[in-house]
Amino acid sequence: MKNNVKLFADIRSSDTAIVGGKNASLGEMFSILSSKGIKVPAGFATTAVAFWNYLDSNQIREPLVALMQQLDRKEYTNLETTGTAARKLLLEASLPEDLKTDIEREYLQLGNGKPVAVAVRSSATAEDMPEASFAGQHESYLNIHGIAQLLSAVQKCFASLYTDRAIKYREDNGFDHNQVALSVGIQLMVRTDNACSGVGFTLEPESGFRDIILISGIWGLGENIVQGAVVPDEFYIFKPTLLEGKQAIIQRKLGSKAKTLRFANASKKGATTVNTDTPIADQQRFILEDHEIMQLANWALLIEQHYKCPMDIEWAKDGVSKELFILQARPETIHSRHIKEKIYTLSEKGNVLVTGEAIGEKVATGIARILQSPKEAHKLHPGEIVVTAITSPDWDPILKNVAGIITNSGGRTSHASIVARELGVPAIVGTENATTKIKDGAMITVSCCEGKVGNVYDGALKFEAADLDLTTVDLPQHTDVNLIISDPDTAFQLSFYPNNGIGLLRMEFIVTHAVQIHPMALVHYDEIKDKSIKSTISDITSLYKDKRKYFIDKLSQGLATIAAAFYPKEVIVRMSDFKTNEYAQLLGGKEFEPEEENPMLGFRGASRYYHSAYKEGFGLECAAIKVVREEMGLTNIKVMIPFCRSVIEGRKVLEVMESFGLTRGQQGLEVYVMAEIPSNVIEASKFATLFDGFSIGSNDLTQLTLGVDRDSGILSESFNEEDPAARTMVAMMIDAAKKAGVRIGFCGQAPSDIPDYAAFLVSKGIDSISFNPDAILKGIANICKAEAQQEAGKKTK
Fold first, then answer.
1. 446: region left, alpha or beta (phi > 0 left; psi from -120 to 50 alpha)
2. Fewest C-beta in 10 Å: which of 147, 367, 564, 713?
3. For the whole model, what pTM was predicted?
4. Helix and strand counts by DSSP (H, E) for the chain
5. Cα 266 to chain center, whole Å?
6. Angle at 371 between CA 365 and CA 376, to 5 degrees
């Protein structure tokens, strides 16, 4: 027993060379972290010594060396035959009697003297390279009963050291085949087949953002999520507010979870598992309750703190005991980054063939090659884009030279996603129908640079890949530089840009894309006349008895994602500023919106918030803000009121907000107002007594100063932010804010496009300037130049 097996309780992370990385991590958690409440199923592991003794007692060490020496290392034409021969040697050998005895003794100890179900997993060792994980290269066997099945599974795990993919992995990574042993972990089985399982990352996988824990999961056994066979549920948890004891789940995404992998019935001859259709009711509900998500998140945080690095974790829920367990944890290295080397942008748009989840932020063009399985590898040429249903570790050897990967199934933690990140190629997963919508041999463009939704375009579109080194960019000394943002899916990526926070968060994008439904159609759902619209709303909100809660959840999660990405920097949320014609486009909107001749100057902004036609809808917006600030703990959120025509109107809005539980000054809540109407400038001193600051909206202020509809093509040449009258209004607004002692910011394109305009704002003492992401670096350069010129001017006086 001393040399053949080690109990998890006796294993530490330093034992990688003895029991492999996977088993060393399990032992470390079982022996150290169990005292902190983390549940890890008990077990034991065979050692490297046991493996070498197995080879030597059967005299197959030298034959294996000979087989590896004959491997074609250039084209790998004999990889399959070499692997088959090596596995045959191992499977036809016999386990030493002392090893059998030790395994049986510890197995019976696990079940208190009785046979129990166990999971049998491979864990490779590398004597000189303890960091090697060999993740996904070797076999695992679940729900093993009895000593005979167990010994057979152990021998199969030994043989899996020479799977084709494992051989190729060692070749690609420079490992000596003859120095790598195979340890087998035997662990009490968690009955996830009757519950759920999944994975977790202690950072955001696409951007490498460190303050997020991502937990994803599916019904049944975890193989479906690893292989990408289904789209999982996803939960994003914010670490800083989790540590404060807040309800830190900032985002929930319902996956389709179309299949559930379970253990086969006895009648299913020759099959150990069966993939069944998930009942619709289970597809339409989350796999975990909030308290379970928080429990897993807290465990993930403890594991990360213990290992002192981002972690990749496997978890499971037992369908019998209903308990949660951690099955595995390994250091996460692929996604741990802080800045991108290049930023990709499409120079043109085209016909979208399919969409899915974007993995990475790159763009690639190439020939689409539809493959049904790795056996069709001969059809693939270097630089082509693989299109397939799903991938597994067996695909690894043939994915080395692809330009991109597209799959029908899978999510952000699927095998295809992980491989794409490792290879640094764009992937689009979960398209559902790529293999039928994309033609084999067609030229396509894979675009992952447009947010979390990836697009596959017909043809080879032009794109740019600009070098971007954010470490060399210094922020101005006197003027805050903020971002203008609307899409939560880009928030974590954009957080790495140099910035002082968010000067304008447009919530309209979240309402349009995440909510989709007019808020008043949710408040008065029972009164909707259009049966078709009502049915669609019913389907979308099926998880909610109270339709208003749907709006609050979707909006709060979108806002929280952005607030978390930039925490603790300020994030100024502009309350809704749809025009009536825009609101009417939302589901159910036409029944609640008036028709106006000139919506730009009509029922918009502040005037809606206290009016009976929208007041209850504004209440939902306020409720979402309360959830983000008070329940989730993201108090860096501030509020801004748009298109407030008069001081009287401003006072009414603040009173309505207070009635909905949002009181200016309470719990540090600051309320700003947009300065975009001449009346805001003229009455600035009075507005300053109501609000904490101003943000100049240059587009509306320019159009209302010059009397030019900014959307008019005929008058486009007359719309000019540099017009003396428009500049005078801006200058007056800044002067008034300074005199009143409140903050004043500016939102608009001019300071990035026109260096002189940036210099004008800096000379007036503007507190902050907000830019769209694609303009922020140019804007920073213009501000820094303006500040330098101003300082130089002071010295010459």
1. beta
2. 713
3. 0.86
4. 29, 30
5. 40
6. 120
**Tokens coding 729:** 């209004």
Helix (H) or strand (E) holding 349: none
pLDDT in tens, 710-741: 777 787 778 888 899 999 999 999 999 999 99
Cα–Cα–Cα angle for 36, 39, 44, rounded to 5 degrees: 115
> Is 493 strand, coil or helix?
helix
Amino acid at 221: L
Residue 246 has pLDDT above 90, yes or no: yes
Yes or no: say if 226 and 136 are a contact pair by the CB < 8 Å rule. yes
Is 747 in the active site? yes
As a whole number of angstroms, the distance between CA 234 and CA 767 comes to: 39
- Report yes or no: 18 and 125 within 8 Å, Cβ to Cβ: yes
Judge whether 178 and 68 are in contact, CB under 8 Å. Answer: yes
Task: Tell me if 296 sits within 8 A of 38, measured CB to CB.
Answer: no
- Is 415 in the active site? yes
- Bridge partners of 122, per DSSP, are 184
Taking the alpha carbons at both ends of the chain, their separation in whole angstroms is: 86
The torsion angle over the Cα atoms of residues 443, 449, 451 and 457, rounded to 10 degrees, is -10
Residue in the structure block whose two tokens are 């049915």: 535
The answer to whether the CB of 681 falls within 8 A of the CB of 704 is no
| Other C-beta atoms lying within 10 Å of the C-beta of residue 178 | 13
Token duo for residue 41: 């199923």
Q: Cα 472 to chain center, whole Å?
A: 27
Q: Quote the CA–CA distance of 571 and 327 in Å, as a whole number.
A: 38
Cα(220)–Cα(262) distance, integer angstroms: 6
User: DSSP secondary structure string, 231-279?
Assistant: PPEEEEEEHHHHHTTS--EEEEE-----EEEEEPPTTSTT-SEEEEEPP
How far apart, in whole angstroms, are the C-alpha atoms of residue 540 and residue 538?
Answer: 6
Tens of pLDDT along 559-583? Answer: 999 999 999 999 999 999 999 999 9
Phi then psi dihedrals of residue 755, to 5 deg: -55, -35
Averaged pLDDT for residues 298-303 = 98
Percent of the chain with pLDDT over 90: 75
Give the integer Cα–Cα distance in Å for 38 and 665. Answer: 41
Identify whether the C-beta of residue 422 lies closer than 8 Å to the C-beta of residue 397: no
Angle of helix 724-740 versus helix 755-764 axis, rounded to 10: 30
**Looking at this protein, which amino acid is placed at residue 180?**
V
Q: Crossing angle for the helix pair 48-57 and 97-110, nearest 10 degrees?
A: 140
Angle formed at CA 351 by CA 345 and CA 356, multiple of 5 degrees: 70
Given a contact cutoff of 8 angstroms between Cβ atoms, the answer to whether 543 and 284 are in contact is yes
Burial class (CB in 10 A: 0-12, 13-18, 19+), 512: middle
- What is the rounded CA–CA span in Å between residue 429 and residue 678? 50
Read off the pLDDT of residues 384-425 as tens digits, 9 standing for 90 and up. Answer: 999 999 887 778 778 888 999 999 988 877 778 878 877 889
- If we measure between CA atoms, which residue out of 335, 337, 317, 316 comes closest to residue 327? 316
List of residues 6+ apart from 307 with CB closer than 8 A: 13, 329, 331
Q: At what angle do helices 61-69 and 48-57 cross, to 10 degrees?
A: 90
Catalytic residue among 196, 415, 449, 644: 415
Catalytic residue among 157, 622, 747, 784: 747
